[in-house]
Amino acid sequence: MTIHVLHVVGARPNFMKVAPVMAALAQYADARQTLVHTGQHYDVNMSDVFFQQLGIPAPDVNLEVGSGSHAQQTAQVMSRFELVVIEREPDIVLVYGDINSTVAAALVSAKLGIRVGHVEAGLRSGDRTMPEEINRLVTDQLADILFTPSEDGNANLAREGILPEKVHLVGNVMIDTLVRLLPAALQHWQAGRFEVQGLEVEPNKYVLTTLHRPSNVDDPAVLEQILTVLSDIGQQLPVIFPIHPRTRQRLQSTHYAISRSIPLGRNTSLRLLEPLSYLDFLALQRHAALVITDSGGIQEETSYLGIPCLTLRTNTERPVTVEMGTNTLVGNDLDLLRTRFHAILDGDRSWDRRPPGGIPLWDGHAAERIAAVLAGMAG
Question: What is the DSSP letter of 164?
Fold first, then answer.
């Protein structure tokens, strides 16, 4: 008896999660796989390059939904995905993370009576103003099989009434991808230097930052305050800032005069880059003096790599990175951001809470555990 697994991805964090799962399932002769890309991220640097570097096969289906409001995007995925499910007849639809494509595919599959598996289940920030939190809550209620990355995910699901037999603690599939590709990323460094998009850097002599969450970039006053602090930090260490399309759009808006009040460019303290490929970004993460971000995935990767991370959020759905990793929440307290930056530069290691051997099950084998569960369904 075979099992047909249909994977749904839509944004770059999904790509890092699906790659090891597809590779692990390929080892089972009784597993057939279909890959559906919703097209939620459609920029080449945000999508196509990731597929190439991660070794993901070309999608069997691309729904090409593109951008739009949360409701529009979710509706477009649901409308187009329903036809795919009816035509392809999978045994289980596997969704990843917490994006709009995730909850849309879960809703369609549940209504059609198709089993749903959720990779990265159980994560909670406790903040329902975040669209991602709504996506997580709804997806986990619909899912038949829930794969959690850490113990807190199991505790959250138990508190929400999810039956324990549905839940499998497997570890973090993003770390699987990091472990596999870190050697290739480090080859980008030649003679202790790395050049990316014409910018040359040396290890531990720069800060790496990313910003994309609405709470940080949608309000021009908030964004200007953050960029002012980053620019000040850059007077001591250059701040490398690969800019997310959403953030660039905000900067380019005619309503904002930020770029006229804060020096932005390749030769300033705040050095803007185009979005980076996975390998380039991983190479920069590995040798950064510290990382400043609002990204969930980067909180995880820096914790594994042992790089101090200052997160511009008041909460996180990945508390294990604070409790056992190298992550510190600074929220919207920009004075605290400055203070922690200087403390880290001065050698303070209070941020490093990694246990011996690392966070449990963040060992590069999470996808193998997922594949074993799914293959067992075929029997």
Answer: G
